[in-house]
Amino acid sequence: MFRKTCAKSVVFLAIPFLLAACGSNTSSTGKEGDIVATELIKSPSKTETTAALQSVGLPVATLKYDVACYKLTYKTPDLTDALVNVSGLVCLPQGKSGASPLLSFQHGTIFFKPEAPTTASFSEYSWSTAAIASSGYIALAPDYLGYGVSSAIPHPYLHAKTISSTVVNLLRAAKKFLALPAINMATNGQLFLSGYSEGGFATLATQKKIELELASEFTVTASEPGAGPYDMTGTVRAQVASTSLVNPANAALMVKAYDMIYNSPSRISSYFTPTQAAQLDSLYSGNINTEDINNALGGSVISTNSLFNQAFLDSYNGNGEAAFKAGVAENDIYNWKPTTPTVLFHGEDDEAVPYANTTTALQAMAAKGASNVSIHTCNAGGTLPTTHLNCEGPHLVDMMATFSPMAQGL
């Protein structure tokens, strides 16, 4: 589930420009959203950005501006609420007059850590962020805990509290960064949120946090989460009850992450078969891509009980595993009333994140009284099935088409 396939990257030399010195990864000083360091890592022209997107098969609109992309290192809480250093990408349109809207784009599931937005290789996510900035937005892309400067920390996969805090604190850091005399770029007060797969989950979790906890600090203009597992309880229940798993790399990462987050001591040996439990740490070291992890687990489609212990499956499908179920339920993020215009984008043929996540969210939000939430169903083009991977590019196109009429000053 929650599949993200590696794409070819275009590599350019980074251009360092240090505005502040990097610190250690943990600190008891400062506060959330404080800037630790900034570095100019790439200044792509609109021609370079167009070519890079075309090379990885992403759709390309008419781009307007050359771009400067910076890595921001900033403070956010980890699982223990200790402040740690994390990183995110901020791309700025160059030669643009007037104030610009902000757009924070949250990336999907990553297994191979060099795919994070701020990496020197400038990955698919980096180029997507550059393209958003080349369209006239100030574009942000958080690495998340576990990637970029925090790569020594295991990523707390699909954990709503930490991932939403990481996004919010990049927004805070970006506000301070834009006010620096060397940058001096104005925003127009608009804030757009979007992301696909795990990024869709991160987007809706962030929107929920802002609307319910931080409304005096931020106002979201519009949001378009795509193909996210908003109903974690329903998604995990369906997978555990199934006889087979598609893309087991994602299911294994979720259970491994939730074991790290919610269990002390670990219960990995209770969840996974002995063979699978023994190789998890090496498979999720950050040096192996999705396909290779799937192959090591038995293939892209495997029997569920070849990954998870049958006793665990039986217990979960019955009345057992109350603590694990509670941890999963803590990350259900759909049952609330958004006030922000919200588009839930998804493909009906999604084999990785069930389409029911989107219909369940829409129904629950409507039942709470939300009147501005809608679904945009993916069209992958021609006769292509609307699978998880096939709808990633269409989500980017749909997002830009949704936001552009609302965005001011592009």
Brief summary:
By secondary structure, the chain is α/β, with parallel strands linked by helices.
Question: What's the topology here?
Answer:
Blueprint: E1 26-27, E2 35-42, H1 46-55, E3 67-77, E4 83-93, E5 100-106, H2 124-134, E6 138-142, H3 160-178, E7 187-196, H4 198-213, E8 222-226, H5 232-241, E9 244-246, H6 248-262, H7 268-271, H8 274-283, H9 290-297, E10 301-303, H10 304-307, H11 310-317, H12 322-329, E11 342-346, H13 356-367, E12 373-377, H14 392-403
Parallel strand pairs: 5-6, 5-7, 7-8, 8-11, 11-12
Antiparallel strand pairs: 1-4, 2-3, 3-4, 4-6, 9-10
Helix pairs in contact: 1-2, 3-4
Which characteristics define this entry?
single chain; 410 residues; alpha/beta; Rossmann fold; 2 domains; ten-stranded mixed sheet; two-stranded antiparallel ribbon; 14 helices; 36% helix; disordered N terminus
Provide structural commentary.
With 410 residues, the chain is an alpha/beta fold. It folds into 2 domains: 26-230 and 333-403, 3-Layer(aba) Sandwich (Rossmann fold), CATH 3.40.50.1820; 233-329. It is 36% helix and 18% strand. α1 crosses α2 and α3 (160-178) packs across α4 (198-213). The protein is globular and about 60 Å long. The model is unreliable at 1-28 (pLDDT under 50).
Q: Report the CATH architecture of the largest domain.
A: 3-Layer(aba) Sandwich
CA-based gyration radius:
20 Å
Number of beta-strand segments: 12
The level-1 CATH class of the largest domain: Alpha Beta
Amount of beta strand? 15-25%
Distance between the termini: 36 Å
Shape: globular
CATH superfamily of the largest domain: Alpha/Beta hydrolase fold, catalytic domain
Class from helix and strand fractions: alpha/beta
The domain tally reads 2
CATH topology description of the largest domain: Rossmann fold
The profile of the biggest β sheet is: 10 strands, mixed
- The percentage helix is 25-40%
Mean pLDDT: 91
Number of helices: 14
Give start-end ranges of low-pLDDT stretches: 1-28
H and E string: EEHEEEHEHEHEHEHHHHEHHHEHEH
